[in-house]
Write a structure and sequence with these properties.
Elements (H helix, E strand, L loop, with lengths): L11 H4 L3 H7 L20 E3 L13 H13 L6 H8 E2 L22 H12 L3 E2 H4 L5 H6 L10 E3 L3 E2 L9 E2 L10 H11 L4 E6 L10 H14 L4 E5 L7 H8 L5 E3 L9 H4 L6 H14 L5 E8 L5 H13 L4 E6 L13 E2 L1 H14 L3 E4 L8 H19 L6
Parallel strand pairs: 4-7, 5-6, 7-8, 8-9, 9-10, 10-11, 11-13
Antiparallel strand pairs: 1-13, 2-12, 3-4
Length: about 400
């Protein structure tokens, strides 16, 4: 297997470091306690953050903790340049030099009775899912029920045609898509409740052609769901609404439990990856506004793709700004090219590198972080943990003296 040598700007001394220390050396602007301690990673890629990110009076100082980390890692065997390259990413093949995808990028082929039943129900009600439109690698797991046995699908409202043309996305685009189906909010609520789900994700295409950019349609869908099943937890994965505060407020107050909006990539690659009408500041502002407008206890969430040409320091700098915006949950996944007409994959990030980003995200203070090659913003395993967190928050709130 051929490995791609990354980040040649590292000094000779840095090359001799352990991979985690090299990652730290690339982000000297970050506070030391973000990396202390770097937790060991279990087989799962979704982790709960510490109950508090503040250091107690009895905790060791950040400098001391970082020094302990360096001392511990220095005792491990040093790695060669080739080992370092393979620990972060794998080269993407070309026509002249074809290279098979790494084993961790293999996907399960959709199938089974439950998959067929959900697909039939969606077609009967003229509903669309981002699972199909975006060719999600987890479609088979989520629709078949996976380990939990509960099937789920991420419903895409406002039609299947987007007004924007991001270079990574497989959804159809048009300046004048068909008008929204007025029966869609009712059909969506009917379908989801019939599946017996406890947690659902509602997303949409961008509708720059509409006066309110589809925010009223979004709000109505959430409200109809809550009316039919008040106990259901709803995550709304929304577009940026061009930064319109009125649209954000309308959706944030619709009764949802998780307000999600994806920044998609690091700050430096926004114009390369996303449509020209989207940008990092606008997306961050949307997430900030959601925190202001939504009821207390509503969580915010975002996601980025790796393997688009970003560097580790760009990833960590972006994470820091996202956390400063008050975002609770962040997910990381591998970008996968939907077709030859889409943006090419720059590199395949290894599971070990995803684990490092997860550990650092937890130390930054994100309440939950899901990070892995096959993780997507709407991911069954992640939704399970978010559901547990929301329920725990509400139980604690109802038993507190203030609520009494």
């Amino acid at each position: 297997m051929v490995y791609k040598l990354q980040y040649l700007y590292l000094s000779r001394q840095e090359h001799k470091m352990h991979p985690i220390l090299r990652l730290i050396s690339l982000t000297k602007s970050l506070k030391p306690h973000y990396f202390a301690p770097i937790r060991s990673i279990s087989s799962t890629i979704i982790h709960k953050a510490p109950q508090t990110t503040k250091l107690s009076s009895s905790s060791p100082s950040p400098s001391r903790t970082l020094a302990d980390l360096r001392r511990r890692l220095a005792q491990e065997d040093s790695l060669s340049l080739t080992d370092f390259a393979s620990s972060y990413s794998v080269e993407v093949g070309t026509k002249k030099n074809p290279i098979p995808k790494p084993k961790w990028m293999k996907m399960e082929v959709p199938g089974g009775d439950r998959y067929a039943a959900i697909k039939a129900k969606l077609r009967d009600l003229n509903l669309h899912t981002v699972c199909e439109e975006a060719k999600c690698p987890n479609l088979a797991e989520c629709w078949s029920g996976g380990d939990t046995g509960t099937a789920t699908a991420t419903i895409m409202i406002l039609g299947d045609t987007c007004t924007r043309g991001c270079r990574f996305c497989n959804v159809k685009t048009s300046k004048t898509p068909p008008p929204p189906d007025p029966n869609e909010p009712s059909n969506v609520a009917q379908a989801i409740v019939s599946w017996g789900l406890d947690y659902v994700v509602i997303t949409s295409v961008d509708r720059d052609d509409l006066a309110d950019q589809g925010s009223s349609h979004f709000s109505e869908t959430v409200q109809r769901l809550k009316a039919l099943k008040p106990s259901m937890l709803i995550e709304a994965l929304v577009p940026d609404f061009r930064g319109d505060s009125g649209c954000v407020e309308k959706v944030a107050n619709s009764g949802l439990d998780v307000f999600a909006h994806n920044i998609e990539t690091v700050e430096e690659l926004q114009s390369t990856v996303r449509d020209h009408r989207a940008n990092f500041k606008q997306s961050i502002d949307v997430l900030k506004m959601a925190k202001v407008y939504a009821p207390v206890g509503t969580m915010t969430k975002t996601s980025i793709m790796l393997g688009c040409g970003e560097t580790p320091d760009q990833v960590l700098s972006t994470m820091e700004k996202v956390r400063a915006a008050g975002v609770d949950v962040m997910t990381f996944g591998q970008y996968m090219r939907p077709s030859k007409r889409h943006m090419p994959v720059s590199e395949y990030i290894t599971p070990e590198a995803f684990e490092k980003y997860q550990s650092i995200g937890v130390e930054m203070g994100f309440r939950y972080v899901a990070s892995g090659p096959m993780v997507r913003s709407s991911y069954k395993a992640g939704e399970f943990y978010i559901k547990s967190m929301i329920e725990a928050d509400r139980a604690a709130s109802s038993s507190s003296p203030a609520s009494a």
